[in-house]
Automatic annotation (TrEMBL):
The active site is at 115 (cysteine persulfide intermediate). The keyword Cytoplasm applies. It is found in: Cytoplasm. Transmembrane segments: none annotated. This is Sulfur carrier protein FdhD. Gene3D superfamilies: 3.10.20.10, Cytidine Deaminase, domain 2 (3.40.140.10). Belongs to the FdhD family. InterPro entries: Cytidine_deaminase-like (IPR016193), FdhD (IPR003786). It comes from Streptomyces djakartensis. The lineage of its organism: Bacteria, Bacillati, Actinomycetota, Actinomycetes, Kitasatosporales.
């Protein structure tokens, strides 16, 4: 199976001094996801937790919702011409009674690109396939102080980032700030899929009392994944996209961006942020 990191020789230049040394890089390899034997999608990912990644991806696509929907996930042998197993192709087998939605190429393109070209259609697709309307779940309340402490805790839990500097991460926290799970990957969306997939495998969906924190920005795709997993709060250390804000407002998702130190912007769902005396200024 593919490794999480690889070593490459680099030319290092520091203040005019030149040296040759090995450097540790994050591994990036394609993963083909097949659904009941039929090719469905290809994503570039860091090897590891591949079954969880595939399961989480199918949660976001509206295929899986409970552990009972999932019959099995296997690596496909004979994925190459010589019949060897590359561990880069997985086949997800659903339970016989699972109804497979129409996942067309067109839908996959605009669902994963976050380009906004099909904004209304994207919002409609999430609205019609979401199993757990966030607006109907019990209200989670989180304080700014709790949110402010989460990025440092996420960074401390990133084991591979310390060696490579090239990985994104996503973490699930309880509403009380307890770290529930953390995953790393070359792609933010993959890290979230691994979290959601593990939750599905453990029978923990919907994640209706969880806070999702992602490194980097909050795209439409990440907001979609939070909504499809029933997560009420999504926080990011960088900016959200306009379509992510639109989706959050429509779905009732609390969306926090630019979470750095004690500063943050709340773009939607501010009713879940427990403020002290009102100090908001125009």
């Amino acid at each position: 199976m593919g490794r999480v990191t690889e070593r490459r020789k680099v030319l290092r230049i520091r203040d005019g001094a030149v040296s040759s040394r090995p450097d540790t890089l994050v591994t990036e390899e394609p993963l083909e996801i097949r659904l009941n034997g039929k090719p469905l999608a290809i994503t570039m990912r860091t090897p590891g937790d591949d079954f969880a990644l595939a399961a989480g991806f199918l949660v976001s696509e509206g295929v899986l919702g409970t552990r009972r929907d999932l019959r099995n996930i296997v690596y496909c042998a004979g994925a190459t011409a010589d019949g060897s197993n590359t561990y880069n192709v997985v086949d997800v087998q659903t339970a016989p009674d699972v109804v497979i939605p129409d996942i067309t190429l067109e839908r996959n393109v605009y669902t994963t690109s976050s380009c906004g070209l099909c904004g209304k259609a994207s919002l409609d697709a999430v609205r019609t396939t979401a199993r757990w309307p966030i607006a109907d779940t019990p209200k989670v309340r989180v304080s700014p102080e709790l949110l402010a402490g989460l990025p440092d805790r996420l960074r401390a839990a990133q084991r591979v980032f310390d060696r490579t500097g090239g990985l994104h991460a996503a973490a699930l926290f309880s509403e009380g700030g307890e770290l529930l799970d953390v995953r790393e990957d070359v792609g933010r969306h993959n890290a979230v899929d691994k979290l959601v997939g593990r939750a599905l495998q453990n029978g923990e969906l919907p994640l209706s009392r969880a806070v999702l924190l992602v490194s980097g920005r909050a795209s439409f795709e990440l907001a979609q994944k939070a909504v499809m997993a029933g997560i009420p709060v999504l926080a990011a250390v960088s900016a959200p996209s306009s379509l992510a804000v639109d989706l959050a407002a429509e779905a009732g998702l609390t969306l926090v961006g630019f979470l750095r130190g004690g500063s943050m912007n709340v773009y939607a769902g501010e009713d879940r942020v427990a403020l002290r005396a009102a100090t908001a200024q125009g």
